[in-house]
Structure formats: C-alpha cells, structure tokens
Amino acid sequence: MHRLHRRRRTALSVSAALLAAAPLLAACGSDAHPGAAAVVDGDRIEVSALQAQVREVRSAQEASPQAKQLIEATGDLNREKLNGMIFDRVVEKVAAGQGITVSRKEVQETRRAAAAQSGGEEQLAAMLLQQQGVAPDEIDDVVRRNVLMNKIAAKLGAGNTPEGQQRLTEVFAAASKALDIDVNPRYGTWDNDKIQLGEYSAPWLRQPAGKQQM
Predict the structure, then answer these.
(1) Which residues of 121-137 are buried (b: 16+ CB within 10 A; e: fewer)?
(2) Across the strands, what pairs with 24?
C-alpha cells in the first residue's frame, strides 16, 4: 500500500490472477428480493445503498475540474459499485476464515503513507477518483481492502508464483460459493470462479499479472 500512487487502474496489490480463474450462479428473479441489488449470505445489499454510493461518486466527479472526462470514463458505475460491495464481503469472509483482522490504526497509518507517496491527501483522493471511481468517503474502505488482501496473500504464501496464485484463487472461489451470492438480474449474475459480476471487468482486474503495484 506504500506505493499506492504508482497503481494504475487497480485496487489490489496481489496479482490479477487471483480473480482471473476460469459456472455462473442462476439469476434470481427480480421479485425474489424486492429492493435488493444482491443478497450475500442472507444479507441484503439494498438498491438504495448501491445508489447512495453511485451518487457519492457522481457528486465528487461533478466537483472536479475534469468532471466531463471523469463521468464519461466511468462506464457502468452501478455495476462497478455493486461488484465492489459484493467483493468486499468475499474478502471479509476469507479474512475471517484465516483469522485476519485490520485495526483502525493500521488503516490510518497505511492511508497516511499512501497520501505522502501521492503528494498529499488531495492528490490521493483525486487519483483514486480518476482511476478507480472512488469517492473521498470511500477511501478508508479501499485502504482496508488493500491491507486485508495483502495480509491474506502473506498468510497463504501466495507471492507471485503460479502455485501461490492458484491457492489464493481457490480460497476466494470457495468463500464466494459459501456466501451463496444472489444478484438481481438487472445487474447481471455473479461468477464464483472469477469472483466478479459476470463479464464485468473491475478496475483491479485490468492489469496483467506482475504489474500489480501499490
């Protein structure tokens, strides 16, 4: 996380191979969970909560001098945010299974280091908004995800070897399946093996393995 400013369109420091493994969950009927964008381990992700995240990003983008470019480059922000909300729950599941926790102090220290490397909090926020569609209020969540992912990779001895990455993929795929993720069809279907929404390509998947720097 100490070189977050060098990251280009990625939110994780582990290899993209983690989420690039090669069936799709059956889509739930939109009336099965009215008002829910997805249900993860029996817990609802409300459409209203998803839309709130989208509004936060749009507000931050609109306040930027590069507003037009940022909005045009965002793509399907609803799916991007839902993908992240679900993936965060998978990360938490894996972390809990491995006995891994992250303290508030760790998040604060990692964020301070990232800001220092980026040239300050303002620059860090601008970079994350531009490259990952992260609103200022979401930065701590992104930092927490990174710290958890780094700890998980270290605990599993993932490294950058094919064997390590395969082990990491297997652990995350197993956690994803155990959560019984059910997505409202309007947003697509969840792929347990790729740990993402269907063919959606999350920002942290857009770089080839070996270039996942923080």
Answers:
(1) eeebbbbbbbbbbbbbe
(2) 191
